[in-house]
Amino acid sequence: MLYVKDGFPEVNEDVLCVVSKIYGNSVFVKLPEYEKEGVLTISEVAPGRIRNLRDHVVEEKNIICKILRVDEKQNRIDVSLRRVNLQARKRKQEQIKKEDFADRMYEEIAQKLEISKDDLFEKTYEEIFEEFDLVFEMLYAIMIDNSKIEVFSKLSKEEKEVFLQLVNDRIKPEEETLKRKFELTSIKEDGVIRVRSVIKNAVEKTNYDKINVIYLGAGDFEVKITHEDMKSADFIYKIFKQELENSSKSNFCEVKI
């Protein structure tokens, strides 16, 4: 579940909506993240002419919409379905999936502590939303850095230990892949050998095993670096790039990045 936020959503924010009623050329939706209601007009459902709204939306079904306008005085929120691209929809759906997981985690932790899930959330929500937008983000941060559990000042030492044990057991590091293309050529007779040597040197310089260089053709290559976070992957790439440039000079190769 997505926990309720204070206030109103921001314009251009992607939100979860539940279709509550289809009436004429309008669709009325609930915004569970804010415990408010919104309006989806027929022109914002899908591009092109729409003959039947029910071909696109169904009552009681979840949809992902973008906030178009917010009028706090009139307590009116206008949303759009057609302006949410596939990538944004998948990103929001992934957030919902992670919050559902976080909710189940809280249920399990609360059972271990023999308290209610609501009581556990009451003891921790302030610290979570001071730093993060999602509960899962806090759980993930605690898994990465166990010392973050100490921000929960309302939890006892024993409660923290149970909380930490379950987080470490249930949550595993996610991996992201950084991709960068480059061109590497040599006019020497043994150019192929030189190019291979340059790439080998650059990969070994990183001292990292989750790095892979793919030949794309005609001197074009792509390096892929998989890591738990993109910042670290970018740091490794900079090492690779620097050695690629240095080794290219000593091997009489030309590199374009």
Features:
257 residues; OB fold (Dihydrolipoamide Acetyltransferase, E2P); DNA polymerase, domain 1; Alpha-Beta Plaits; 9 strands; alpha+beta
Describe this structure in words.
By secondary structure, this protein is α+β, with helices and mostly antiparallel strands. 40% of the residues lie in helices and 25% in strands. The protein is built from 6 helices and 9 strands; from the N terminus they run βββββααααβαββαβ. It has helices at 86-113, 117-131, 135-144, 157-170, 191-206, 230-250; strands at residues 14-23, 26-31, 36-41, 62-71, 76-80, 176-185, 211-217, 220-227, 254-256. A hairpin with a 2-residue loop joins strand 7 and strand 8 (220-227). Helix 1 (86-113) packs across helix 2 (117-131), helix 1 (86-113) crosses helix 4 and helix 5 (191-206) packs antiparallel against helix 6 (230-250). It is flat and about 75 Å long.
Neighbour order of strands in the largest sheet: 3-2-1-4-5
User: What shape does the CA trace take?
Assistant: flat
The CATH topology of the largest domain is DNA polymerase, domain 1
Low-confidence stretches: none
Structural class: alpha+beta
Q: How much is the average pLDDT?
A: 93
Question: How far do the termini sit from each other?
Answer: 44 Å
Radius of gyration: 25 Å
Task: Name the helix and strand elements from N-terminus to C-terminus, one letter apiece.
Answer: EEEEEHHHHEHEEHE
What is the domain tally? 3
CATH class categorisation of the largest domain: Mainly Alpha
Put simply, the count of helices is 6
Q: In what range is the share of β-strand residues?
A: 25-35%
